Amino acid sequence: MHEHDVLVVGAGGAGLRAAIAAHEEGADVALVTKLHPVRSHTGAAEGGINAALRDGDDWELHAYDTMKGSDYLGDAPAIETLAQDSPKETVQLEHWGMPFSREDDGRVSQRPFGGLSFPRTTYAGAETGHHLLHTMYEQVVKRGIKVYDEWYVSRLAVTDHDDPEERECHGVVGYDIKTGQIQGFKARNGVILATGGLGQVYDHTTNAVANTGDGAAMAYRAGVPLEDMEFIQFHPTTLPSTGVLISEGVRGEGGILYNNEGERFMFEYGYANNDGELASRDVVARAELTEVNNGRGVEDEYVHLDMRHLGEERITDRLENILHLARDFEGVDALEEPMPVKPGQHYAMGGVETDENGETCISGLYAAGECACVSVHGSNRLGGNALPELIVFGARAGRHAAGTDLGEAEISTGETEETEFEDGLDTPVEPGAVATSDEDAVADGGTAITSPDETVRHAVENERTRVDHLLEKDEGVQQAELREKLQKSMTENVNVFRNEEGLKQALEDIREVRERYEDVYVNDPSRTFNTDLIHTIEMQNLLDLAESITLGALARDEFRGAHWRQEHQERKDDEWLKHTLLSWNEGTPKLWYKPTILDGEKEYEPKERSY
Amino acid sequence: MSTQIEESETEAQEQEAEAEEAELPAEQEPQTPGDRRRAEKRERREQETASEPVAETDDTFKMKVFRYDPEVEGKMEPRFDDFYVPKKKGMTVLDALIYARDRFDTTLTFRHSCRQAVCGSDALFINGRQRLGCQTQISDLDTPVRIEPLPHQDVVKDLVVDMEHFYDQMEAVEPFFQPDETPGDELEEQRQSRENREKVKMSTRCIWCGACMSSCNVAAGDNQYLGPAAINKAYRFAMDEREGENMKEHRLNVMDQEHGVWRCQTQFSCTNVCPKDIPLTEHIQELKREAVKQNLKFW
């Protein structure tokens, strides 16, 4: 058994920042990642980091823009923390040597992004995430922080108290991908989940193949609620054939969207007469699909994004990476012709419910970054707000797990007196009632024995049993077939445009896949680098997350942010200024709500969003 | 047809001669019922996958993929498997590998993640050259497309190589920023000129894929040679104006060693294969010049 003070699962932006912060507080910290840190998907982020660094800008403006962009579903204490901490965290990266783009005076450059009232997006070319990831990994190397790379964390070790809030997390179970060994990892102080996005729930996504939402799904099965899962961001500019992202920086620098008639539709069809192409992402994504659905799409599939007029010099200086992406993945020379783009799954606004210190309702269990929902993005994330979330809340989770007193959190987690249970949702199938692998425990991986060592040992045993079963089973169904079925149904039914019929169809499809998953087997008998096995374990995570997204979307009968419902074309503030939460306990998911916090240091009055 | 995989015996034998001999672990007696069942499963898989060859047609292309697994009986001897994959516009080598794995043989093993040339995990030896699978269009290649693991690295399984040595070399050059001093104010930037950022820009694009190291004849013969990627990493910091003179001197001393920059024979193979177009050879030459200049100063 490996033992450390703090274990960080996942080594992208949030994980690396959490590990550095915990180390700075004197903790013995280790990173456990199924990739190698520099392979993490943070490296694919392009646009930049929002931080109020300049005269004329301040954290209050940043917080206000973020609250407005969230369509008033963000929690004020989290949003204000993001806006207040981002400047020093961003300059911290600069002090660590991150190669930001520069102004003539040597200070870091900033540019305009969608939904921002000030050009506060700090960037390094169109490859900001790559530089952020490498800069932080360099700091991890410098500090000698232990990294277990290509170790897949497949289960949490939590105690099995009836009430999730009495449970404790004592560690995780890791699977050494190279050798097939399963081992326990004990965390004396805390486990931080930083496992990133869940884009593989969809078949057209900007996310990496590794983004299967492992942390969120494991936390869910251990009894932690998932918050606001219905809010999936579809990025308006992804390449049609692969889903590769074309940064919002292109529109920030002045790129223009055209339909097949050559019309600048954002203005001509009135989708966003003030901001045009720089309206919020949900607005632009819907505009593009409306054009395509009304017969004004190119090849009935996509629209054109044109940046030729910016001139070669400016493009090369600020967007060079985009030229490579367009050439390599779509065969288009973006200096000569417009790029084909369409919306694609990009980001999960929802995730593991945490407070602004990163902690969940299970003590010793933290989450940060895209897998978490501290609720800074609400129903729609502004471009440039993902990277500051990673560093701000990664650092806070790391510090808190290492024992630093960050003060009492203003956001409460778990069930409280404000909890309101859903009792009238009409679903075609009972959600998620198919048993998990460990039927003797109320929490997946849980154990009635509460000593930390025994808890980890018990979880390891459970995992060995599961893996042995998958490897020994000779026939049945393979994960690739199930994954394809799930991804297709989600893309068809739980996409940019949603209606009740489609959502119910998705729930039925998810149920069918879930039942067939009971008969899943791994064809590869090898213990060496068995990707067949890893993908099969990931598949269960995709299933649980797909279901939580769809259930939340069915429950929320209003139109807010990225969540558009055909039958409900208005934002219903009287009913829906609240977060959806889904928690799994003893095999049965339950849906409940808690109110959005609109008062922090400032008060935020819901207003109509217009762009 | 039953399957589109061809694993003809004679073909495999032919290829064996070309493929590197792998170390075989001693075979063990099955010890538990689980082990026995797994052994039976391995055997059955062996019989199932041997099938009639399928010819390349107008709609498909042939891919010859290196296979090896130290644990599975039929794969302990390295061989090539043929896969016939439907042609599709815009298809990359990675797309084709995923197709073959998901449709024909789920045991086919390779690393991949971002599929947009930033994670660096799918550097492969494709038609005799180091390339990223995700960045290589099938239409740009002659068929059959031959896919092998990166040369000069130990093969873990199929197309997966052991990257530990590469990581060790990267970390040997103190790959982290060491400025003389950092502004005391946490909101004050250190400032870097645009010119200086331009100078180091290309060197910061490295994605640690290992293609350069694999292509380098010198690295193949000298295990201690730092190699192009690690030297480029050192260049990134040595040329950054925010690190002071003393640190630059220290960095040049690390480079100016028997297994440092002087091992480079300027063959340009690293530069040729770099998927991010980093002028690696040029960076190594520049560090050689800097090292000489530094030595002259001491005379």
Keywords:
heterodimer; A: 611 residues; alpha/beta; six-stranded mixed β-sheet; globular; B: 299 residues; alpha+beta; 37% helix
Task: Note down, in words, how this protein is organized.
Chain A has 611 residues and is of the alpha/beta class. Chain A has helices at residues 13-24, 59-69, 76-95, 128-143, 214-221, 249-252, 265-268, 281-296, 312-330, 386-401, 452-472, 479-493, 500-517, 531-555, 573-576, and strands at residues 2-9, 29-33, 49-50, 110-111, 121-122, 146-149, 151-158, 169-176, 182-193, 226-227, 232-238, 256-258, 303-306, 339-348, 351-353, 365-367, 372-373, 420-421, 497-498, 564-565, 578-585, 588-595. In chain A, strands 1, 2, 6, 7, 8, 9 and 16 form a 7-stranded mixed beta sheet that branches. A 6-stranded mixed beta sheet of chain A has the order 17-15-10-21-22-18, covered by helices on one side. In chain A, helix 5 crosses helix 14 and helix 12 runs parallel beside helix 14. Chain B has 11 helices and 8 strands. In chain B, the strands form 2 sheets. Chain B has a 6-stranded mixed beta sheet, sandwiched between helices. Chain B has a two-stranded antiparallel ribbon with strand order 7-8. In chain B, a hairpin with a 2-residue loop joins strand 4 and strand 5. Chain B starts with a strand and ends with a helix. Chains A and B meet through helix 3, helix 4, helix 9, helix 11 and helix 12 of A and helix 2, helix 3 and helix 5 of B.
- The secondary structure category of chain B is alpha+beta
What structural class results from the helix and strand content of chain A?
alpha/beta
> Stretches of chain B where pLDDT falls below 50 for ≥5 residues?
1-30, 48-53
User: How many strand units of chain A?
Assistant: 22
**How big is the Rg of chain B?**
23 Å
Estimate the mean pLDDT confidence of chain B. 87
Q: How would you state the average pLDDT of chain A, rounded? A: 95
Secondary-structure element series of chain B: EHHEEHEEEEEHHHHHHHH
The low-confidence parts of chain A are none
